[in-house]
UniProtKB/TrEMBL annotation:
This protein's UniProt keywords: Disulfide bond, Hydrolase, Metal-binding
Keyword Disulfide bond included in the entry's annotation: yes
UniProt-listed GO biological process terms: mannose metabolic process
Ranges of residues in domain Glycoside hydrolase family 38 central: 89-175
Family annotation (Gene3D superfamilies): 2.60.40.1360, Glycoside hydrolase family 38, central domain (1.20.1270.50), Golgi alpha-mannosidase II (2.60.40.1180), Golgi alpha-mannosidase II, domain 4 (2.70.98.30)
PANTHER family in alphabetical order: ALPHA-MANNOSIDASE (PTHR11607), LYSOSOMAL ALPHA-MANNOSIDASE (PTHR11607:SF3)
Name used for this protein in its record: Glycoside hydrolase family 38 central domain-containing protein
Organism: Thalassiosira oceanica (Marine diatom)
Keyword Metal-binding: yes
Pfam families xref list: Alpha-mann_mid (PF09261), Glyco_hydro_38C (PF07748)
GO molecular function: alpha-mannosidase activity; carbohydrate binding; metal ion binding
């Protein structure tokens, strides 16, 4: 783009191009300028020093690299949010609009992150990949992952949340097609890499896109056939080993199963597992009635293989005797006939449930959390679901809530908790996980304590949101804690990197203290949450991690709330042209072909929050410890066979089981066109002074990422990888002497400073 701009400037200046002649008189004074933040900075710098008439820069050359005094009065400090175009129009709604599509984009992005690594894995093992398994071609668009790459790139634009319904369907269709293409490629690579050469097996190995709805046709079909064995390939894209609970849907009833992992001796070894019921809050008629849950341990940037088969013993999925006795005395018992964990009484006051690290006490009448205790801290929690009634239909000039705008009714800015008088509670406990199910009206919650994990998982199902009263609704999950953030400060992430301090009712966010009023006390305090939001005081910290982008706030001391779903009945006049009212059966065409009528019931959405707690002033490190795990979920492929499958290896790791530092993420591991070149991005995942250990610089030897080969060259690139870093550094504008490049590459070893991302092209 810079080349195009420079060329247009040159050719218009020397008369080669006559703008007036080419495009008409009204374009005579058109000038093209600015294409990127870098070019904008350089151009503004020239304008500024020319205006100030600095004698030392009288030429105004953009090549001048250092003049900090010229910028002193132009530095922006403070927050850039909230954003509004008038006093009643705060653009906080689109942070949470179209929650289902936001989740689909996040899943697609995570899948692409893993699939690119698997594509690189295929390139590193070329002898294992037949000519029929396409890997990397000579053009970017020729990659089998191109359709997913393209769809994810488009879907990350904010208009995914603020488009018409038929456009949203098109986004979803593109993502679904990309996921289908990518999953076919990945399953082919897995079969070639893992099966004994010449063996044609697991032809139905596939990724199940509806696992979150307890739907997987392969596992449901195979589990109902006593001769079928289920095989699961679980892939971990992180640079450190991990253990995660994985749930596989099954249709079988009254049958025992055994879950086994293929160990390093290529023999099967039993792992802890449990069968849990699916209460089908999503009301999907094809959802499986049960799931088998087990803990999968997966190597860094690698995979392990598991299998599920019918067992000859009725004790296959029984709890261990010690746990079983405890359960008989406590809140649950085991059904010996069906080998299932089931609830047999209500939660009693004072019951405390533990996964070995976290201890949780629940409100016995609602099933909501009331107290959490971790290894180093304990906090009181009041958990609620509720709504803000959306502003609408106030006459000419009235600002409605809509896809962009969040606005509670002007005369009713109150949070309305859902009534809990009719709440129902159920408890399920096993040696893998404890689940507390709670239903409050049209919201269902599963609180999940996975064995050995330092977080609590909240799975919520919302909808259909009732609109019979003619009022749109903003649905909120609120956590009120004993933390005393008396200064109104809380923190949200900026695109998963820096944590930005926000302050409740802060009238100085635009850089000046006067002239602003609290015209919208709710919406004015909502901020984007891409990965996490947290509170902290001198004694405790509390954070919530999200599985998709949402709007969040702290409207009272010790409180956090997240906007988890929206259903609105009027347009906000910001260009969408229709209400944000998603329904199960879609919408009729726009005029003149239809009347854009919504069909069916309101949609039901499912989401996940992870709750973490810690000691005083530890909010950032406790959420950072889970952020990468929350984004990069294990990639799970399921296949079946009637007989035992012979595998050539028990597991596989792209980095040969070497673990990277815990504070480093492999952001990119892409195979490039041509032979033996790879694009590598490494990111330091902690900020300065956030943690005594993980905020320190991280040292990584790139050769550890290529244990199967020897690196012949490493070239460091700029972040977008379109030019060499040294060439870019030589001509970039420097804000101050402190911005001189500090890092150098010592052979294949690089040093990552806090929150730094470094990009390399590695050739083997």
């Amino acid at each position: 783009m810079d080349i195009l701009i420079d060329s247009v400037d040159k050719y218009t200046s020397d008369g080669t191009i006559d703008i007036k002649d080419k495009f008409g008189g009204r374009f005579e004074r058109v000038k093209i300028f600015y294409s990127s933040p870098e070019r904008y900075t350089r151009c503004k710098y020239v304008d500024l020093i020319s205006a100030k008439a600095h004698p030392e820069h009288e030429s105004g050359s953009p090549d001048q690299k250092h003049n900090p005094s010229a910028w002193t009065d132009s530095v922006k400090v403070g927050d850039f949010f909230p954003y509004a175009d008038n006093e009643h129009s705060y653009w906080a709604g689109y942070f949470s609009s179209r929650q289902s599509l936001k989740k689909m984009e996040r899943v697609s992005s995570s899948f692409l992150h893993s699939a690119r690594q698997i594509e690189a894995l295929a390139k590193l093992f070329p002898s294992k990949i037949s000519a029929k398994t396409e890997t990397v071609s000579d053009s970017w668009s020729g990659s089998p992952l191109f359709s997913l790459d393209d769809a994810v790139g488009v879907a990350q634009h904010h208009d995914v949340a603020t488009c018409k319904q038929h456009v949203a369907y098109d986004y979803a269709k593109s993502l679904a097609m990309g996921l289908q293409d990518a999953s076919l490629f990945v399953s082919g690579v897995f079969r070639k890499l893992l099966l004994v050469p010449g063996l044609s097996a697991l032809q139905n190995l596939r990724w199940c896109p509806l696992l979150n709805e307890t739907i997987c046709d392969v596992s449901q079909t195979a589990s109902g056939n006593e001769n079928q064995i289920l095989y699961i390939v679980a892939y971990n894209a992180l640079g450190t080993p991990r253990s995660e609970a994985i749930a596989i849907p099954i249709d079988a009833k009254d049958h025992p199963f055994t879950v086994e992992v293929l160990d390093e001796t290529v023999t099967w070894k039993a792992v802890d597992s449990a069968i849990l019921p699916n209460r089908n809050y999503l009301q999907n008629p094809v959802a499986a009635p049960n799931s088998i849950m087990f803990t999968a341990t997966i190597p860094p940037v690698g995979l392990n293989i598991y299998r599920i088969r019918r067992s000859q013993s009725k004790n296959s999925l029984r709890l261990t005797p010690s746990v079983g006795r405890k359960l008989q005395q406590g809140p649950t018992s085991f059904d010996a006939q069906s080998d299932r964990v089931k609830s047999n009484r209500e939660i009693k006051r004072g019951d405390v449930f533990s996964n070995g690290i976290m201890k949780v006490e629940f409100d016995e009448s609602t099933g909501m959390i009331k107290r959490i205790k971790g290894e180093n801290s304990s906090i009181e929690v009041t958990q609620e679901y509720g709504v803000y009634n959306a502003a609408a239909h106030g006459g000419d000039g009235f600002q409605n809530a809509g896809a962009y705008i969040m606005r509670p009714q002007p005369d009713d800015q109150a949070f309305h908790p859902l009534p809990v008088g009719n709440a129902s509670v159920a408890l399920y406990q096993s040696n893998v996980v404890t689940e507390v199910h709670a239903t409050i009206g049209w919201v269902h919650q599963i609180t999940r304590l996975v064995k050995g994990k330092d977080y609590i998982e909240i799975e919520y199902t919302v909808g259909p949101i009732p609109i019979e009263d003619g009022i749109g609704k903003e649905v909120v999950s609120r956590y009120t804690t004993s933390i005393q953030n008396t200064d109104g400060k809380f923190f949200t992430d900026s695109n998963g990197r820096e944590f930005v301090p926000r302050r409740r009712n802060d009238l100085g966010v635009l850089g000046y203290e006067s002239g602003l009023t609290l015209t919208e006390p709710v919406a004015q305090n909502y901020f984007p949450v891409n990965t996490a939001i947290f509170l902290e005081d001198e004694k405790s910290s509390f954070g919530v991690l999200v599985d998709r982008s949402q709007a969040g706030s702290s409207l009272a001391e010790g409180s956090l709330e997240l906007l988890i779903q929206r259903r609105l009945l009027y347009d906000d006049a910001r260009g969408v042209g229709e209400p944000l009212n998603e329904t199960t059966d879609g919408i009729t065409p726009d005029p003149p072909y239809g009347n854009t009528e919504r069909l069916g019931e309101g949609v039901i959405i499912k989401g996940v929050h992870r709750l973490v707690i810690g000691g005083g002033k530890s909010g950032a490190p406790i959420v950072r410890s889970q952020m990468d795990h929350m984004f990069s979920q294990p990639l799970v492929f399921v296949g079946s066979e009637e007989s035992a499958v012979q595998f050539s290896r028990s597991s596989l790791s792209l980095i040969n089981h070497n673990s990277l530092p815990r504070n480093v993420m492999i952001i990119t591991f892409n195979a490039l066109a041509g032979d033996g070149s790879f694009l590598i991005r490494l990111g330091h995942q902690y900020g300065e002074n956030e943690d005594n250990i993980y905020s320190n610089p991280a040292r990584v030897d790139l050769q550890d990422l290529f244990t199967w080969s020897v690196i012949s060259s490493v070239v460091e690139m700029n972040l977008s990888a379109n030019q060499r870093l040294d060439e870019w550094e030589a001509r970039r504008y420097r804000w101050s002497k402190e911005t001189q490049p500090k890092n150098s590459l010592e052979g294949t070893v690089c040093l990552l400073q806090p929150l730094e991302i470094r990009t390399f092209v590695v050739t083997i």
